[in-house]
Automatic annotation (TrEMBL):
This is ABC transporter permease. Keywords: Membrane, Transmembrane, Transmembrane helix. One of its GO terms (molecular function) is ABC-type transporter activity. The chain crosses the membrane at residues 16-34, 54-71, 92-118, 130-156, 163-181, 259-278. GO terms for cellular component: plasma membrane. It comes from the Bacteria. It comes from Mediterraneibacter gnavus. Pfam families: ABC2_membrane_4.
Length: 284
């Protein structure tokens, strides 16, 4: 297993697409931090830009995993591995682990870009170090979960071009679904109704009315679970969890434990399903 894993990892390092994404995400981290630094007069808060890249990781993982595993099929590498005696379980796990490592490294390259600019421009973290650490671990788990989902799709489809399209569509569907759920859960329970204004146009009487768009009860619980279960939902929550004053909601401090649990669950289920289906797949 170790030799198989090392050989797969070395092939990953030789892929131009991997280094392309690493450089792009590093540049994106630099760009994001520079934008925030330019708005600040004295120093700036790094918290608000640490997790901006997560919403892109689904799409990046879809493209990279599809191309990498697709090349394994088109080059005959997977077939040759089976011929020389490697089990399908080990082949699947080797590809999954390498794709997960690639996704983590790509994600970390963004973080490195942010900290490089932060160190150069007096950037600082104002949220507790323990909370930032947990959120960072959670963000890496999100990248691994995306890699697990995309590996499941890629290993079952020998058509590289077709798989890229399917994986990208799934990544976009996950992103749109996560955004929609996050928006619905973000609706306020009450909204201000401006009854009268004076001659200067300033409200003089305001009353709060129930928001008909606010979701409560069982539907809200279901949406909250879906938001935590989907890696895209977690990514959006993390990206929206910090601003110039640190955490936007104190409950975020405990959320990473829940997110990591859901990420492990999704990764485990997709891996088991992928291995079971790959065992039955006919490879020519």
């Amino acid at each position: 297993m170790s030799r198989l894993l090392v050989s797969t990892f070395i092939r990953m390092l030789k892929k131009v697409i991997f280094w392309f994404f690493v450089l792009c995400m590093f540049a994106y981290g630099v760009y994001t931090a520079l934008n925030i630094a330019s708005e600040a007069r004295i120093g700036f808060v790094l918290d608000r830009c640490l997790f901006e890249c997560l919403q892109l990781m689904g799409l990046i993982s879809a493209i990279f995993t599809s191309l990498f595993i697709g090349s394994e099929y088109s080059d005959g590498t997977i077939r040759n591995k089976i011929i020389v005696g490697h089990s399908r379980i080990r082949i699947y796990l080797a590809n999954l682990i390498v794709c997960a490592i690639a996704s983590v490294l790509i994600s970390l390259s963004y973080t490195v870009g942010v900290f490089v600019i932060g160190n150069m421009n007096g950037g600082e973290l104002i949220t507790e170090t323990a909370t930032i650490f947990l959120c960072m671990i959670s963000s890496l788990m999100i990248s691994i979960t995306f890699a697990s989902i995309m590996t499941l799709l890629a290993i079952l489809n020998t058509n590289k071009a077709g798989n890229v399209v399917v994986s990208m569509i799934l990544a976009l569907v996950l992103l749109v679904s996560g955004s929609f759920i996050h928006q619905k859960l973000g609706e306020p329970k009450l909204y201000d109704n401006y009854v009268t204004v004076n001659e200067m146009g300033i409200p003089t009487q305001v009353e709060q009315l129930p928001n008909p768009q606010y979701i409560e009860g069982t539907p809200r619980i279901v949406l909250e679970v879906l938001s935590d279960l989907l890696p895209s939902g977690q990514a959006i929550q993390l990206a929206d969890a910090f601003d110039t004053e640190g955490m936007t909601d104190e409950s975020i401090a405990k959320a990473p434990y829940r997110w990591m649990g859901y990420s492990l669950l999704v990764t485990f289920l997709t891996s088991v399903l992928g291995i079971a289906l790959f065992q039955k797949k006919e490879i020519r």
